[in-house]
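Chain A, query sequence.
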Amino acid sequence: MTSELTLYTNPQSRGRIARWMLEETGAAYDAVVLDYGTTMVAAEYRAINPMMKVPAIVHGGRIVTETAAICAYLADTFPDAELSPLPQERADYYRWLFFAAGPLEAAITNRAMNVTPTPEQRRMAGYGDFDRAVGVVEQAVARHPYIAGERFTAADVYLGSQLMWFTRFGLVPSTDAIMAYIDRLAARPAHVRAGALDDGTLPEVAAD
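Chain A, predicted structure.
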C-alpha cells in the first residue's frame, strides 16, 4: 500500500460509513475489501482487528476500529474538512454520536433479532425500549438541519448512515422528519461518491 491511511472494508457492512467519512475528509487513502469467510477471518487481518469485523483503518501505523470512533478520529485528524464540532456544538455532537453507536443500534439490532425486553429488563437495557429510542432520535433530527445544529459534522455521517440503512429495511419507521434528514445527507457529493465506490460504479484510485 502506498498511502499511510488504509481502510479495511466490505461494501455490505458498516464499512460504508467509514468510506463516506473518508470521502468527506478529502484525505487520500487505500481501500482493502475483505470477504467475510476468508480474508476477514485470516490471521493477517486478525492482527489488525481481533474481532474480525470491518471497518478498521490503519493510519500511520495506528489502528482504529469501531465505526463511531473512526468517524470521530478522522474528523479530528483532518480538521480542514470542518467535521469536528464547534464549541457550541459539542454537547449535541457527542450526545447523539454515542447515542447512535450505543442505545439506538442496540435497540434496532434487538428488534431485528425479535428480542423484546420485558418491563423489568428495560431498566437494564441502555435504550429502555425500541419506541422510546427511535422517538428521541426523530425529535432530535427534527430540531435542526443537522444533528448538532446548523452545520454538518461527523456525527451526521454516523447517525445518518444508521438511519439510511435501517429505514431501507423497515427497521426504523420512515417518518417525515427522519426522511427529510436522510434526504439532506444522501445528496452530499461525498456520500454519492462513496456509494459509487462501494457499489463498484466508480473505480478505486490508489493513493499516492
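Strands lie at 5-9, 30-33, 56-59, 62-65. The chain is about 50% helix and 10% strand.
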